[in-house]
Design a protein that fits this description.
It is a single chain. By secondary structure, the protein is mostly helical. The protein folds into three domains: about 250 residues, no CATH class; about 30 residues, no CATH class; about 80 residues, no CATH class. Helices cover about 65% and strands about 5% of the residues. It has a two-stranded antiparallel sheet with strand order 1-2. A hairpin with a 2-residue loop joins β1 and β2. α5 packs across α7, α7 packs antiparallel against α8 and α14 runs antiparallel to α15. The chain is elongated, with a radius of gyration of 26 Å. The two termini are about 40 Å apart. It comes from Thauera aminoaromatica S2. GO terms for molecular function: electron transfer activity; heme binding. This is Urate oxidase N-terminal domain-containing protein.
């Protein structure tokens, strides 16, 4: 019953996380587009009132006129009700932490720990996880606080920091656990930027405007810095959110490097859209991103298995799966923590094994399955499954 309830918690929190993430990233993309598409106001009176830029748009059968004031309207009180974009960010982060708890903390033995990487107790793994997320934010925040106005240098240092963290995590956790922690670290930075800097800075400026005081521009400068970081983090974080469905990436022997290259590709593609909003079309940016992905596809292509040697019988493969896979991949799993077979994949009958032959061969050969190698499958057994598949994956000897 406990495993069944955890499955429901996983489903509902994941659904909430997806909805909130769409709302947050959608709003972020919209305001980045708006900010980079502004034109100087055509009405001289608007400029006198403090309008920095404006944009006319059409959508949903109507026309919209957006105007931006850097430090609020001049010569008039700021009495209008203000819409604050913050709960999307907070809900995304909170639901993401909920998923982290349900999947990777409660299920640490299955999803977070890989004894072949580092032998950890569940308590130690969870402690390292929490410490890492907190320390990652603190280090990043200190960097940003001390490098205002040094955007290029700061971006380079942040990238190096993320890559070092990426590599270190792969020396501590399972490959899947390492990937999700890189994403959780970036997501924590994004949400904390909103909570600790962007929203408080905006509130401070609003209070100064309403009191008729000279507006301090520094909170706006800091908020802009953190907002820019957030928009470049989005594509890497979105990739990591879906990466658990593609073990060919994180289960690779150089999974940390694969993730680094894909993050760079995401940043390059995002930069193309940021510049395009300003009227600057730099096609080399998405071309470079796509080229990096294409290069990965070539370098990561699986090696061909020699199918011409000794024949591997189906009986041999079935025996391996019975010993190494059936504990989880059955109609009634016996492995603790599983109420049903992962992804509905069952491997009890010849028909089921045949139906999932491609997935089984790929995930077993890559090292992704069994999770954390909890059933201690050997390299020889992995090779036999790969050869059996290469020889036609027959279910009759």
């Amino acid at each position: 019953m406990e495993a069944y309830l955890l499955d429901w918690a996983n489903l509902l929190v994941r659904w909430l996380h997806l909805i909130a993430g769409i709302a947050w990233i959608g709003a972020s993309f919209y305001f980045v587009m708006l900010d980079n598409s502004l034109k100087p106001p055509k009405n001289p009176n608007d400029a006198k009132r403090g309008v920095f830029g404006e944009l006319w748009a059409v959508h949903g059968g109507g026309f919209y006129h957006s105007q931006k004031y850097l430090t609020g309207p001049k010569g008039e009180p700021l009495t209008q009700d203000l819409h604050w974009s913050k709960w999307e960010a907070y809900t995304t982060w909170l639901s993401g932490m909920g998923m982290m708890a349900v999947i990777y903390w409660i299920g640490a033995s299955s999803y977070l720990i890989d004894s072949s990487v580092m032998a950890l107790s569940p308590a130690a793994a969870v402690g390292i996880s929490i410490t890492f997320l907190v320390a990652g934010w603190v280090f990043y925040d200190l960097l940003c606080r001390n490098m205002i106005g040094k955007d290029g240098v700061l971006a380079a240092i942040v990238f190096v920091f993320v890559m070092v963290a990426n590599y270190v995590l792969h020396q501590v956790f399972s490959a899947r656990g390492a990937y999700i922690h890189v994403g959780a670290m970036l997501g924590t930075m994004m949400a904390a930027n909103v909570f600790f800097h962007i929203i408080p800075g905006q509130k401070k400026m609003v209070e100064q405007i309403r009191r008729g005081e000279q507006v301090d521009p520094m909170p706006g400068i800091v908020g802009k810095q953190r907002s820019v970081h957030n928009t470049y983090f989005t594509l890497p974080v979105l990739f990591i959110m879906i990466s658990n469905h593609y073990p060919m990436t994180y289960a690779n022997a150089k999974g940390w490097l694969v993730l680094g290259v894909l993050m760079v590709a995401g940043v390059l593609i995002r930069q193309f859209f940021v510049l395009r909003h300003r009227g600057q079309v730099k096609w080399w940016l998405p071309a470079a991103g796509v080229a990096l992905i294409a290069l990965l596809m070539v370098l990561m292509a699986p090696k061909q298995v020699d199918a011409g040697g000794e024949k591997v019988s189906f009986a041999t493969v079935k025996a391996i799966m019975a010993q190494r896979c059936i504990a989880c991949h059955a109609d009634k799993p016996t492995f603790e923590g599983f109420a049903q077979a992962p992804k509905g994949v069952m491997l009890q009958t010849p028909e089921q094994i045949a139906a999932h032959a491609v997935m089984s061969a790929q995930t077993v050969a890559s090292g992704y399955m069994p999770l954390g190698n909890l059933t201690a499958i050997t390299e020889e057994e992995r090779e036999k499954i790969a050869i059996w598949f290469a020889q036609g994956a027959r279910t009759a000897d």
